[in-house]
Automatic annotation (TrEMBL):
Organism of provenance: Bryocella elongata
GO molecular function, one term: oxidoreductase activity
Keywords on record: Oxidoreductase
Family named by the database record: Belongs to the short-chain dehydrogenases/reductases (SDR) family.
UniProt-recorded name of the protein: 3-oxoacyl-[acyl-carrier protein] reductase
Length: 247
């Protein structure tokens, strides 16, 4: 396993699902981890407790990453506790399907404010504190290769993450900072389980088209984040890495 000893990581939206799995995996590789959450302190505290029980170091910090001042406060909390920041995982996001006739302005702005603006605001707040070798890992989606019906807003946010990854890899590359995106396929996480059940026909079709024959689990994604965060990935930047079982 790649080592992250003496590195500090901030994972947004890390109280459950993919974010929680990434936070736990980064800590297992040796990083000190800041577990960001927006609403569920209990879930975030559980992630911290899991890390601590395995001998790792972590704290939970509340922040709405769609608000610039809260992003600044979040990064300040990281620096206050650990005095450095080496790894940023932009995982916070929302995911809702709606056909064209059901799209609302409120739903559009909720998606873009969190999924896209949040990624930009946290990276902006963190960037001045990165040193050469730092790694930014965005969480995109393989949905941008499919563009299924009723996903116009969500797919658009993840297409934006693809673009942001490429642009920021060029902006931050001269400082030795790497920016990559992990683009998962459909992943079974608690907050999406109702949606998965409602999309049973689509899920069955996805599984049938997936060479590895199943939808993903958070622990399928986490090891890729550990690799990208590590010095083993020192020559990788601007990449969209699809982790989707071959879909």
């Amino acid at each position: 396993m790649p080592t992250l000893t003496n590195k500090v990581a901030l994972v947004t939206g890390a109280s459950t699902g993919i974010g929680a799995a990434i936070a736990i995996a980064l800590a297992a590789a040796g990083a000190s981890v800041v577990v960001n959450y927006a609403h569920s302190q209990a879930d975030a505290d559980n992630v911290v407790a899991t890390i601590a029980s395995a001998g790792g170091h972590a704290i939970a910090v509340q922040a709405d990453v769609s608000i610039a001042s809260e992003c600044q406060a979040l990064v300040s909390a990281v620096l206050s506790k650990y005095a450095r920041l080496d790894i940023l995982v932009n995982n916070a996001g929302i995911y809702r399907y709606a056909p064209l006739e059901a799209i609302t302005e409120a739903d559009f702005h909720a998606h873009f404010n969190l999924n896209v603006l949040g990624t930009l605001l946290v990276t902006k707040a963190a960037s001045p504190h990165f040193t050469s070798g730092a790694s930014v890992i965005n969480i995109g989606s393989s949905i941008t290769r499919e563009n299924p019906p009723s996903s116009a807003v969500y797919s658009a946010t993840k297409a934006s993450i693809n673009a942001i990854t490429g642009v920021l890899s060029k902006e931050l590359g001269p400082r030795g900072i790497r920016v990559n995106s992990i683009n998962p396929g459909m992943v079974d996480v608690p907050r999406r389980r109702d949606q998965l059940n409602a999309l049973e026909t689509r899920v069955t079709g996805l599984i049938a088209r997936t060479p590895l024959g199943r939808i993903g689990q958070p622990n399928d994604i986490a090891p890729v984040a550990v690799f990208l965060a590590s010095d083993d990935a020192h020559w990788i930047t601007g990449e969209l890495i699809h982790v989707s079982g071959g879909l």
